[in-house]
From TrEMBL:
This is Glycosyltransferase family 92 protein. GO terms for cellular component: cytoplasm; membrane. InterPro entries: Glyco_transf_92. It is found in: Membrane.
């Protein structure tokens, strides 16, 4: 025996540690070997139907694939963003077809269900597969078994295969638009504020919205600002409009918001310098800088090695308004006029304000809604005197008298540009239709 003849406790401890280390190394080596791609077929053409849906159900309806992405930050892998049942999905395999040699490789997937599942049976998951060393596959198929016919499996295009130069500085990710969304005026105001602050692209995961909202989205799509990702998650799962599980038979929280946010980060990893994760009724307002670019330059300078910047949320109740900026032509448009809401709720004792983020997408591995779960680099809380989130919505502190609210007119610094830009959009969408 390896430990025979050792009589002192110290020697025994060293012996146990040595054996444990050897077993651990052996186990990890075996685990890695079990995930190595293996050739199962040769000399054939790559077939199988290309999956074009933004959510694709695999056989059995316990696994849903959003999109695969090439990720070589640690090793050469395909990372699929998906949704899985956290208990029932234990084994998945990636099938890679390599041209021109026609070899088909199968690689056992590591299934990493995100920790922020909030009690729901289904959650966001990374399905990660090692790629073949001598092949850069353009497509991947997913199956519950390492055996079968690849022609019968949907094929998914692997995005981010080629590194690109950034086409934009800031991309806003909004997930998810649902509930027949019709807050048209506030949406237009948010979009125009984003553009004033330096945003070039807004990605919206759209479940549904009103007919009027569709017209506005069409305008922004044609303008080149908005990209719509169809998000028919309720066709596959029972969705909740709440973020935590209520024992009501629903499968996933808040229309799969966390999955959409993770997909949006990877989707924009190679094309946007920064990705902004917030809702359509939230605007990160800089207090010391005129726009986001100068703000982020300053924040990065002050926080070297930081890849995630978190901004504090502050509620501006839509029930408390001012008579300023009561623009008559806007009164026929459904939604909130944010220029009339400049009173914010004070901080509550023992209640932490949630935060939203501006991130370097190349440094994020997994994100939740109010913080990242895994990332390279540090996270930094941005002080409130530098920037805050203007969040105009229903009051959280409903019983507060008006005199207890804090008047904050930071938004008015942008009023002339905002009014002009909103009028331009309305004249080409809503008001034009009303004539």
């Amino acid at each position: 025996m390896l430990c025979a003849g050792k009589k002192s406790y110290f020697a025994a401890a060293v012996c146990v540690i040595t054996v444990t280390s050897m077993l651990t190394v052996s186990y990890l080596r075996l685990q890695r070997l079990s995930h190595q791609p293996k050739v199962i077929q040769e000399g054939r053409r790559c077939r199988g139907k290309i999956a074009n849906s933004s959510i694709t159900a695999l056989k059995g309806n316990k696994t849903f694939i959003i999109s695969p992405y090439f990720d070589d930050r640690e090793s050469k892998v395909t990372r699929l963003i998906g949704i899985v049942h956290h208990e029932d999905v234990k084994q998945l395999y990636c099938w890679f077809c390599c041209q021109p040699n026609g070899k088909i490789y199968v690689s056992k997937a590591k299934i990493d269900v995100h920790s922020d599942r909030f009690g729901f049976p289904y959650g966001a998951a990374d399905i990660v597969c090692l790629e073949p060393e001598n092949c850069d596959p353009n497509h991947v198929s997913i199956h519950q078994s390492p055996h079968g016919n690849i022609d019968q499996l949907p094929r998914f295009e692997i995005k981010n295969r080629k590194a690109e130069t950034f086409s934009v500085d800031f991309t806003v990710c909004i997930s998810a638009m649902f509930g027949n969304y019709n807050n048209v005026l506030q949406f237009i105001q948010s979009m125009e504020m984003y553009k004033i602050l330096g945003v070039q692209k807004v990605v919206i995961y759209k479940n549904n919205c009103s007919h009027l909202m569709e017209k506005v989205l069409k305008f922004y799509i044609e303008e080149g600002t908005v990209e719509i990702i169809p998000w028919p998650i309720n066709s596959h799962l029972k969705v909740s409009s709440k973020w935590h599980f209520m024992q009501d038979g629903t499968h996933i929280g808040y229309y799969g918001q966390i999955t959409a946010l993770n997909d949006c980060i990877y989707r924009n990893m190679e094309r946007s310098k920064f990705v902004v994760l917030n809702d359509a009724d939230e605007i990160i307002l800089p207090l010391k800088h005129p726009d986001w670019k100068t703000m982020m330059n300053s924040l990065q300078e002050q926080n070297p090695g930081t890849s995630v910047f978190l901004f504090e949320n502050h509620i501006f109740p839509e029930t408390v308004s001012t008579r300023m900026f009561n623009i008559s032509s806007w009164n026929t448009v459904p939604g909130v006029n944010i220029l009339q809401h400049v009173y914010r709720e004070p901080d509550r004792k023992d209640v932490i304000n949630p935060r939203k983020m501006i991130v370097d997408p190349r440094k994020v591995i997994q994100t939740s809604v109010h913080s990242v779960l895994r990332a390279y680099g540090n996270s930094a809380n941005v002080p409130m005197d530098v920037a805050l989130i203007y969040h105009c919505r229903k009051a959280l502190q409903r019983d507060l008298p008006r005199e207890s609210l804090i008047r904050d007119t930071t938004l008015w610094r942008y009023n002339s540009s905002l009014i002009m830009n909103v009028n331009k959009v309305l004249s080409q969408t809503i008001l034009q239709a009303q004539k």
